[in-house]
Amino acid sequence: MQLFLRATLALVIGVASGLVAAATGLPLPWMLGPMIGTTVAAIAGAPLTSPMRLRTIFLPILGVMLGSGIDASTLSAIGQWTTTLLLLLPFGIVTSLACYLFYRRVGRYDPVTAFFSSMLGGINESILQGGNAGGDEKRIAMAHATRLLAVVLLGVLFFGLVLGVPTGATPDRQLQHLTLQDWLILGSCALIGAPLGKLIRLPAALIIGPMLLSAAAHVSGLVVVAPPDALVLAAQVVLGTVIGSRFIGSRIRQVGTDMLLGLGASLIMLAITVLFAFIVQSVTGTRMTHAFLAYSPGGLTEMSLLALAMGQEVAYVSVMHLARMSAVVLLSPLALPWLRRKQQAEA
């Protein structure tokens, strides 16, 4: 019961922060507001618990919403994404190396901690692999939590202030636009897609499984309706609250230095992201907004939701993040023998 009340308090703070952000004109208020409000409350020591169970419920729903952005024209454009895919590997190497050197020389992190703090993979995978390899799990967790917070916040500001993309659109797609048949089909995509994705071992199975089924339903014409804005906004509130809740148990006086280092690494990553996005735009003519989101060093879930909320190419962004995540999972273990030798040499 206590955990339920703590999670409820986190959501209440998230919703209240979203209302304040919307009233003050903050870009993408229903995600940034909860994210900032919950982060401040967590660091201040409020009795919060991350609403992870609600996040687990929303991930298949988000997958269905992302799949709705895929249609026949999207499939025909896949061949044009080759350049972006080819540049993903050099982008990942340059970005990870730059941040590794930053954490080593400025932060004085040990080799393993610096490496997994610089990984462009998921936070859970980085903490697990880094801890098993002898790294400092708390520092790795703080690095990734700070990166996620900074990338979403600064990325949205970059969209609004630099690229001039509206990030606070008024909802106009209503729940009643879905027929009973739409609800049944899309609900089935969520209920079947999540366990199916786990069964066939898809990466990010809770999202990708429902997303693929939803995409198939939309491409085939079984469903043509866009995701209702109420669900998009609810997903933003939940995800923003979860991001902020990652700082539960942290205190500025204890982790202030690590948070500043995480912010510095995030700025390095975003600068390199802008550079590669500009290259992709120049070579292929891809919109800067699409390329920026495709390379942004946030998570698959967060960046795909941003693409959906801001009316960008969801399929393009999701595919690039899925490819990057898969490459990190496959290639990062190759560095472990070198890291262990370097770690032992410095011990």
Automatic annotation (TrEMBL):
PANTHER family: REGULATOR ABRB-RELATED (PTHR38457)
Keyword Protease on entry: yes
Alphabetized UniProt keyword annotations: Aminopeptidase, Hydrolase, Membrane, Protease, Transmembrane, Transmembrane helix
Keyword Cytoplasm belongs to the record: no
NCBIfam families: Gneg_AbrB_dup
GO annotation terms (biological process): regulation of gene expression
Coiled coil location: none
Gene Ontology CC, one term: membrane
UniProt protein name: Aminopeptidase
